[in-house]
């Protein structure tokens, strides 16, 4: 079975179109269509339904897809196993990081990494943690750094993790800032500026209010913590932010409850890490105390 044809098939599925798959693989659209046709001819089965504008897998395509991914994973693992066993860490490393990790953690890592391993070519992408989880099965990156979820799929490996303590905050001019020890009941009287309901942070905070039988009034949800910090600073409500983000523009609210989420680096099970990925993970463990 031609691995280039398998890669074309998987890329068409992941990108959702022949044209975008061709661009990803640096091929022409007729070339990628030819590779898919050759694979279908070899397997004597139609893999993609071409009768609609959207890419839809046939039953045969759905059955082939997990096997095709595993075949390419084993080829990747073979390349990793046969890589020269030298002291030089070199090659390419593709990373994906959440916006928060990209702003507040990644710079320190990459500064050290570039100094220690100048032969490695880095490719870094940024997106929200939820979107990052959806990207992982497409295998476009080797390591992904996100807020860990308690509902992660079993096909994911957690290679490194560390706690990210969070604090309740309000703007300096907010009424809550004048209270010595505001309670959750005090907070429930004002709008809350929190990430979207599906995030780990929202679930941690909402659980506190649910257990206290108190209402929670989330306003203008956004997963960009810098935006939440700005809206909190101008007095639009209170929020819960990572401790390392809090500065003298915000007042910390001692509500008697702690919130800590967990950040980490993850990858796909069954897919071996390259030497550059292993080197970065060792550096992250050292810096974050993981």
What does this structure look like?
There is one protein chain. The protein is an alpha/beta fold and 290 residues long. The protein has eleven helices and ten strands. The protein has helices at residues 3-15, 18-24, 29-43, 59-82, 99-104, 106-116, 129-135, 184-187, 200-211, 225-233, 275-288; strands at residues 48-49, 56-57, 91-97, 120-126, 143-147, 156-171, 192-193, 238-242, 250-253, 259-268. The strands form two sheets. Strands 3, 4, 5, 6, 7, 8, 9 and 10 form an eight-stranded mixed beta sheet that branches. α1 (3-15) packs across α3 (29-43), α2 (18-24) crosses α3 (29-43) and α6 packs across α11. The longest helix is centred in the N-terminal third of the chain and has 24 residues, at 59-82. The radius of gyration is 23 Å and the shape is elongated. The mean pLDDT is 91.
Q: How would you concisely characterize the structure shown here?
A:
The protein is an alpha/beta fold. It is built from eleven helices and ten strands.
Strands, helices and their partners?
Blueprint: H1 3-15, H2 18-24, H3 29-43, E1 48-49, E2 56-57, H4 59-82, E3 91-97, H5 99-104, H6 106-116, E4 120-126, H7 129-135, E5 143-147, E6 156-171, H8 184-187, E7 192-193, H9 200-211, H10 225-233, E8 238-242, E9 250-253, E10 259-268, H11 275-288
Helix pairs in contact: 1-2, 1-3, 1-4, 2-3, 6-11
What attributes characterize this protein structure?
eight-stranded mixed beta sheet, two-stranded antiparallel ribbon, 42% helix, 11 helices, 290 residues, alpha/beta
Percent of residues in β-strands: 15-25%
* Alpha-beta content class: alpha/beta
Radius of gyration using CA atoms only: 23 Å
Helical content band: 40-55%
Low-confidence stretches: none
